[in-house]
């Protein structure tokens, strides 16, 4: 009977048999003595094949990282929303201004001033590490270099995670190379984004937790890495919960109280400064904006002044919409999961998974014992995280997930099926040709797509930033004309303020009265025509007809209006 650690079919959700559970064979103390596949039958010294494969993987990942760093030299602007935010805060940290931003992009935290503590929605670690990169290098490329390093750390963590499940010398190396260039990772590795940070620290936490079944002290490492993942993206808290359950239900080495204690010994000291900052700013250990996520039924409600947090707000227009919204979110997650890989890799993974599952003998244990076996399996940590993440995104925060959170979560998720398939393949006994061709496709297909994706992302982000930066000369003329600081109301405050340095405020989703009230609250001088929102498509006409706006001629063809209520008596031209 194979142990849970060495049984690759657990990757596909197969559960332990009743006999295995009763015999206590869920403990991964011993590895199978025979080779996991024909490739492990080489007659070289025991460590030479593994060292050779690891070296080849290292230099491949290094080459990919150097290429990404070179592409990043062409980055002039960080891009739209998240990357602009993280880079803007990193700039402020590096310049000694602290974790501050000079724009208001959401109204989920009432009473937020124009200049305020940045991390009331997104999390701090990416900006903190990017600021370190700015101290070593110069400008945006130096900040992106940190993301490139995080992608490389993901590769190393994937190697370690695969090593926890197989004695194969080649499977960890193939997994490390296959993961580093998948499209979803190539997309975020050349941006100042948080997704690769979650991937790097999240996969490290998974690997440490599984290896901790043999080395008790690694629970501390798992806790510390989970804390870093938690400070990178909110999904890290889900991962910590899964690892915490594993620490309780796994049965080897010591009592569960010791394992949980070691896990918290790693987690709490790392996360404590972050929790303290939240308590000092918000009176809560987590960012307060997240409490609104379940009640948001449309994406634009993220920018509403008032989110209805009642039961009626949760249900929207009724139970049918409530259920339909979550069903659509689940379908969206599945579609995004497939698009996270190259088409070739997605097909290869599905075919291999189907073949491997078909070779499994049916289980006869009762359902309760099979569930217990799944919880005690080492696969519970990576697979449990994927399942919990999908369920949370679809059931608790479907709109926020659909707006981008799901795609970013896939950066971590893609490693799990790659590891599972390769571990199963290593122990399958498939013919040599199937193994070699499958591995070649999993590696070469994403690497071939790497240049196109990386360059397209940098070009796209430069376009966003340049469009905002082009307003710079006009803003200077407007400020001179008004003889007072300009505050712009715009749909894209993130990249606007990052590129121009001018404070800005999000155009609220709501009525004309809401727009005018927010403009007065923040002393907005100018507002960009908000044609992006259907419900506000005629806002400029309504406001102009009502008298509070006048067209600001300094901006040429860009329809930007001066707000009379806050500029009256200031205009000198």
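Q: What amino acid sequence fits the structure above?
A:
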């Amino acid at each position: 009977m194979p142990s849970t650690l060495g049984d690759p079919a657990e990757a596909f959700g197969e559960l332990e048999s009743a006999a295995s559970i009763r015999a206590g064979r869920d403990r991964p103390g011993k590895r199978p003595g025979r080779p996991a596949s024909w490739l492990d039958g080489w007659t070289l010294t025991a460590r030479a094949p593994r060292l050779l494969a690891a070296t080849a993987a290292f230099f491949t990942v290094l080459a990919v990282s150097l290429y990404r760093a070179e592409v990043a030299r062409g980055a002039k602007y960080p891009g739209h929303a998240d990357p602009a935010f993280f880079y803007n805060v990193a700039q402020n940290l590096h310049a000694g201004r602290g974790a501050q931003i000079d724009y208001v992009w959401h109204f989920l935290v009432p009473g937020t001033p124009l200049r305020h503590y940045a991390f009331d929605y997104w999390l701090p670690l990416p900006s903190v590490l990017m600021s370190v990169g700015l101290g070593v290098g110069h400008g945006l490329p130096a900040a992106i270099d940190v993301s490139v390093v995080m992608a490389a750390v993901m590769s190393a963590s994937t190697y370690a995670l695969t090593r926890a499940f197989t004695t194969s010398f080649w499977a960890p190396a193939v997994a490390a190379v296959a993961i580093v260039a998948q499209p979803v990772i190539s997309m975020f590795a050349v941006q100042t984004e948080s997704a690769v940070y979650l991937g790097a620290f999240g996969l490290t936490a998974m690997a440490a937790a599984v290896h901790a079944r043999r080395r008790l002290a690694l629970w501390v490492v798992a806790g510390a890495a989970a804390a870093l993942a938690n400070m990178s993206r909110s999904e890290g808290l889900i991962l910590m919960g899964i690892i915490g359950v594993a620490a309780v239900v796994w049965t080897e080495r010591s009592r569960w109280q010791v394992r949980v204690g070691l896990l918290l010994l790693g987690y709490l000291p790392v996360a404590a400064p972050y929790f303290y900052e939240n308590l000092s700013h918000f009176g809560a250990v987590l960012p307060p904006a997240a409490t609104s996520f379940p009640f948001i039924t449309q994406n634009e409600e993220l920018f509403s002044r008032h989110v209805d947090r009642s039961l009626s707000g949760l249900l929207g227009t009724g139970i049918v919409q409530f259920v339909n919204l979550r069903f659509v979110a689940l379908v969206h997650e599945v579609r995004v999961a497939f698009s996270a890989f190259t088409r070739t890799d997605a097909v290869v993974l599905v075919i291999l998974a189907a073949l491997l599952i078909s070779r499994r003998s049916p289980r006869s244990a009762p359902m309760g014992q099979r569930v217990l076996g799944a919880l005690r399996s080492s696969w519970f940590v990576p697979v449990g995280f994927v399942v919990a993440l999908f369920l949370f995104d679809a059931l608790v925060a479907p709109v926020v997930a659909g707006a981008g959170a799901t795609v970013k979560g896939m950066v971590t998720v893609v490693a799990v099926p790659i590891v599972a398939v390769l571990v199963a393949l290593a122990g399958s006994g498939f013919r040599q040709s199937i193994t070699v061709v499958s591995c070649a496709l999993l590696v070469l297909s994403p690497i071939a797509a790497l240049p196109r994706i990386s360059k397209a992302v940098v070009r796209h982000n430069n376009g966003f930033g340049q469009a905002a930066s082009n307003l710079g000369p006009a803003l200077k003329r407007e400020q001179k004309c008004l003889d007072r600081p300009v505050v712009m109301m715009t749909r894209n405050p993130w990249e606007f303020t990052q590129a121009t340095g001018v404070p800005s405020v999000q155009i609220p989703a709501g009525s004309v009265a809401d727009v005018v009230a927010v403009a007065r609250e923040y002393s907005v001088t100018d507002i960009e025509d908000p044609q992006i929102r259907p419900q506000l498509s005629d806002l400029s006409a309504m406001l102009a007809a009502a008298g509070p706006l006048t067209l600001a001629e300094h901006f040429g063809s860009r329809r930007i209006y001066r707000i009379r209520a806050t500029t009256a008596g200031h205009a000198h031209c």
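Q: And what stands out in the fold?
A: The first strand starts at residue 100 and ends at 101.
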